[in-house]
Amino acid sequence: MTRPCLPPRGTYEPLAFDPPPGACDSHAHVFGPYTRFPLAEDRSYTPVEHPGEAFVAHLDRLRLARGVLVTGSASGTDNGAVLAALQSYPQRLRGVAVPQAGTTDAELERWHAAGIRGVRFNLFKRDGHAVYRNGVGIEVLEALAPRLAGLGWHAQIWIHAPDLVELAPRLLRTGLPLVIDHMGRMAAARGVEDPGFRTLCRMLAEGKAWTKISGADRNTDMGPPYGDIDPFAAALLEANAGRVVWGSDWPHINYFEAHQVPDDGALLNLLARWLPDERMRRRVLVDNPAALYDFAPAA
């Protein structure tokens, strides 16, 4: 039996800037309804039901036009909740699925038609041990890479940046665009000179990877307003702002105390600090996700 997660906050901090037309939340999850899309029996957490319409309400509260849904580890390899949301909101949403080694060409093509534009691989470990159950590893990525390339998809990599020192060469050999989750899930205490984080910055600078400047609430040692994350966001944006997108990580699974659940308005407002230039905010919130996730050009 896993612990039930708390729901996201019902109110958001007022926004410090007006999101540009076409702005995108590039990392979030949906779960349920569980009568249709039950969770994996073996899972690390139990989220509250949050189907597609709840996510769209979250986008509306933040005045964001678009969103990207990623199948969460509690769902295992069942992408049903994400696909149902994409079907309901085809213009506003794109998705990142979790495949299996035996996923067929026909299924990949069906996913593509639905709005899937990447697949996620769980390489996230601490001290050599997997942090979350479920997900698929690098061997599946290598096996599927030629077919994913044919679809024009990317590989979203959930990894602790220090492990990139060892794994980046192997990941790059797949030839796929790589998207590194949550700034490499860097604990702030490790600092921006950590060799793995420098590897991530170099991958961005060379145009070989993207990253999401998301997860400030999980990477921080200080808590809000997440000042200890500023140097990491600055380093990634300096490396290559053209390979950076932003995500909320809504509905913030695996939090069990109310004071820990982050405020989505406050998370979006970090961009007022990290990207004070309006043109750069448009690049990260609109132009980059439009290119990465194949959205129509924003008005």
UniProtKB/TrEMBL annotation:
<dbReference type="Pfam" id="PF04909">
    <property type="entry name" value="Amidohydro_2"/>
</dbReference>
<dbReference type="GO" id="GO:0016787">
    <property type="term" value="F:hydrolase activity"/>
</dbReference>
<dbReference type="InterPro" id="IPR006680">
    <property type="entry name" value="Amidohydro-rel"/>
</dbReference>
<feature type="domain" description="Amidohydrolase-related">
    <location>
        <begin position="24"/>
        <end position="295"/>
    </location>
</feature>
<keyword id="KW-0378">Hydrolase</keyword>
<dbReference type="InterPro" id="IPR052358">
    <property type="entry name" value="Aro_Compnd_Degr_Hydrolases"/>
</dbReference>
<protein>
    <submittedName>
        <fullName>Putative amidohydrolase 2</fullName>
    </submittedName>
</protein>
<dbReference type="InterPro" id="IPR032466">
    <property type="entry name" value="Metal_Hydrolase"/>
</dbReference>
